[in-house]
Amino acid sequence: SQKIEQNSEALNIQEGKTATLTCNYTNYSPAYLQWYRQDPGRGPVFLLLIRENEKEKRKERLKVTFDTTLKQSLFHITASQPADSATYLCALALGAGNMLTFGGGTRLMVKP
Amino acid sequence: DTAVSQTPKYLVTQMGNDKSIKCEQNLGHDTMYWYKQDSKKFLKIMFSYNNKELIINETVPNRFSPKSPDKAHLNLHINSLELGDSAVYFCASSQDVGAGNYEQYFGPGTRLTVT
């Protein structure tokens, strides 16, 4: 069956360092992959979308890579700040109607 | 201006009751969605709806039904509520469904507690 996996353990890093989050998927070849941020008690907020023919995409301190051979996307936050602490979700269009399927999310904690 | 809004924010009810959650978007989007986020924080799609088609995730019980009075609204009706329905429900919208190439805008969520 189709599956999207993110590291369920929280990622703790020091302020100023680069955070790297992983999203792995199986049994599918998506044309697009999306990343969202979710803060406690709030809905997810869209961050970045990357296409299968794009190896890398950047937005300010954020960078996403998409390796369709490894079936993996990496999400990087450079010069991390405590305000970056949140849960980060990756999502792919899978199944009927291309509805988005989300990974379980990785909680990032940036310590000052 | 709130892009996607939901009411109520909290809903506490007893088993067997019927309840509705309302959703409105002012983005002019053609497609709206309902998601369920359980206690383990997994966010699962329930429905995708635009003015052409309703797509239902096959795992959703038929006690759940979306109703769209117009393009800007997609309400969620739940009949005969069960304990396992307790979760946070999110409404979302996007310009179109596409192939996962349209970003989605989420509402603030409705926390449903069934006792």
Radius of gyration of chain A: 14 Å
Tally of DSSP β-strands of chain B: 11
The biggest sheet of chain B amounts to: 7 strands, mixed
In percent, how much strand structure appears in the residues of chain A? over 45%
How would you explain this protein's 3D organization?
- The complex is a heterodimer of chains A (112) and B (115).
- By secondary structure, chain A is an all-beta fold.
- Chain A has no helices and eleven strands.
- In chain A, the strands form two sheets. In chain A, strands 2, 4, 5, 9, 10 and 11 form a six-stranded mixed sheet that branches. Chain A has a five-stranded antiparallel sheet with strand order 1-3-8-7-6, with no helix packed on it.
- Chain A starts with a strand and ends with a strand.
- The relative contact order of chain A is 0.33.
- The mean pLDDT of chain A is 92.
- In chain B, 0% of the residues lie in helices and 53% in strands.
- With 115 residues, chain B is mainly beta.
- In chain B, strands 2, 4, 5, 6, 9, 10 and 11 form a seven-stranded mixed sheet that branches. A four-stranded antiparallel sheet of chain B has the order 1-3-8-7, with no helix packed on it.
Structure described in brief:
The complex is a heterodimer of chains A (112) and B (115). With 112 residues, chain A is mainly beta.
